[in-house]
Amino acid sequence: MLIDENNTFLSQRTIPKMALLQTAIKDDQLLVFEKNSSDDKLVLPLSPDPFSKNVYVKVWEDECEAQLVSKEADSWFSKKLNCSCRLVYMPQSTKRKVDTKYAVDNEITSFSDAFPLLVIGQSSLDDLNSRLTEPLPINRFRPNVVFTGGTPFQEDVMEHFRINNLDFYCVKPSARCVITTTDQETGLAGKEPLKTLSTYRSKNNKVYFGQNVLMKGEGRIKFGDKIEVISETEVSFLSS
């Protein structure tokens, strides 16, 4: 995660150019580079030096302990984003819990906004794109799991689903922010899809698209796996 001089997290909300930074894992190294400029790579170990300095960082209302990665990383990111920032790593000793109102079993998350996973149905994106002048790719919403089949916004009513014997639980609709208006290929912002979504996916002055998800167990899922819906709610949150 990148932090500012006050140790508060940074995101595309305030720095859209972050969309242009890409990552890849090669052997035991993390590679970071800017789109269309892949020759200028930042090469990092997957875990920083265990003796790196620890600092307390802020993610929304949460404060948790993190490790500084390196001055080299700080300099590289500061140059790319034209602002002073530092790169931090979450050590195994840090346990950032999800909101207890939605937790199933005291689950934790990393530096994500609030939950470890987000699920969206392809049919939901297809429905949105049918209303837009120019269709948008799914990366505008940055989901971890995308499923095909089903009806538009079926994830709204999904409670429990299973992939490869791993159990997943939809616990909270995802309220969407301005990052969805940033083109992930150019870093430029517009008005869509929030403008259109607000006409039919809005409740209490928030726009919703996708479901935040918790999971139980450990395992691996991959492209093409079957998703099995175990249980659903009777009424969508938008009509409740």
Extended strand count: 16
- Beta-strand content estimate: 35-45%
CATH class of the largest domain: Mainly Beta
User: Structural class of the secondary structure composition?
Assistant: mainly beta
Structurally, the number of domains stands at 2
The biggest beta sheet reads: 7 strands, mixed
CATH fold group of the largest domain: M1 Pyruvate Kinase, Domain 3
Helix count? Answer: 3
Per CATH, the architecture of the largest domain is Beta Barrel
Summed over residues and divided by their number, the pLDDT gives a mean of 95
Low-confidence stretches: none
* Helicity, as a percent range: under 10%
What's the Cα radius of gyration? 19 Å
Order of helices and strands: EEEEEEHEEEEHEEEHEEE
Span from first to last CA?
36 Å
User: What is the overall shape?
Assistant: globular
| CATH homology group of the largest domain | PK beta-barrel domain-like
Explain the layout of strands and helices.
Blueprint: E1 2-3, E2 21-26, E3 29-34, E4 37-45, E5 54-59, E6 62-68, H1 71-81, E7 86-89, E8 96-97, E9 108-109, E10 117-121, H2 122-129, E11 145-147, E12 158-163, E13 166-175, H3 194-197, E14 202-203, E15 206-216, E16 228-232
Parallel strand pairs: 10-11
Antiparallel strand pairs: 1-7, 2-3, 3-4, 5-6, 6-7, 8-9, 10-15, 12-13, 12-16, 13-15, 14-15
Describe this structure in words.
This protein is mainly β and 240 residues long. The chain has two domains: 2-94, no CATH class; 108-239, Beta Barrel (M1 Pyruvate Kinase, Domain 3). Helix content is 10%, strand content 36%. It is built from three helices and 16 strands. The protein has helices spanning 71-81, 122-129, 194-197; strands spanning 2-3, 21-26, 29-34, 37-45, 54-59, 62-68, 86-89, 96-97, 108-109, 117-121, 145-147, 158-163, 166-175, 202-203, 206-216, 228-232. The protein is globular and about 50 Å long.
